[in-house]
Amino acid sequence: MARMHTRRRGSSGSDKPATDENPEWSDVDAEDIESRVVELAEQGHDPSVIGLKLRDEGVKGVPVPDVKLATGKKVTEILEEHDAASAYPEDLRKLMERAVRLREHMAENGQDYQNKRSLQNTESKIRRLANYYRGDEIDEEFTYTYELAAELLDDE
Predict the structure, then answer these.
(1) Is residue 52 part of a domain?
(2) Are both 105 and 123 inside the same structural domain?
(3) Could you tell me if 72 and 107 lie in one domain?
(4) Which of 82, 104, 123 is the endpoint of a domain?
(5) In terms of CB atoms within 10 Å, which end of the chain has fewer, N or C?
(6) Is-contact 26 64, C-beta < 8 A?
(7) SS3 letters for the chain?
(8) Which of 94, 89, 95 is nearest to 76 (CA)?
(9) 84-123 confidence digits (pLDDT tens)
(10) 67: closest CA among 18, 20, 33, 38?
(11) CB atoms within 10 A of CB 22
(12) Residue 99's domain is classified under what CATH number?
């Protein structure tokens, strides 16, 4: 992933195996997977954590390496179908959480210029991501403010 606000190069990661069918050793019923996804979401887990838990713990002891291959739907699609989806996309919500933490830190440590810049960069990413999601995943009228982000975190 390339770094947006630095001159450094991005760090390469591993690629998922190129396959279009679920492995035969993971023969869990799609409905069981969907119910487990909804159950984990109700416990307060984000879609990325749900995927990790299904990979590591599995459903009824059988690992699920790829939810989309097993069910034909992404984790977020399953959550939307069962009205368990979050109001904001996970990446935007996580950035807002970081911005709130940084702003609280800045309130106590006004001379911390590194974190001041980090806050500026984070809020810049939030605005850029909000433009990407606006009208589709989030409301057309959405504009980022610290108060909105703090309120969002208080609701959770």
Answers:
(1) yes
(2) yes
(3) no
(4) 82
(5) N
(6) yes
(7) CCCCCCCCCCCCCCCCCCCCCCCCCCCCCHHHHHHHHHHHHHCCCCHHHHHHHHHHCCECCECCCCHHHHHCCCHHHHHHHCCCCCCCCHHHHHHHHHHHHHHHHHHHCCCCHHHHHHHHHHHHHHHHHHHHHECCCECCCCCCCHHHHHHHHHHC
(8) 89
(9) 888 899 999 999 999 999 999 999 999 999 999 999 999 9
(10) 33
(11) 19
(12) 1.10.287
Overall average pLDDT of the 78-87 stretch: 90
Q: How far is CA 14 from the centre of its chain?
A: 19
Q: Which residues pair with 62 in a beta bridge?
A: 59
Number of residues written out for the chain:
156
Asked if residues 28 and 70 have their Cβ atoms less than 8 Å apart, the reply is: yes
If one counts every other C-beta atom within 10 angstroms of the C-beta of residue 129, the result is 19
- Please report, as a single letter, which amino acid is at residue 58: G
pLDDT of residue 156: 67
**Contact partners, residue 139, CB within 8 Å, separation at least 6:** none
**Is 84:38 a contact under the CB 8 Å cutoff?**
yes
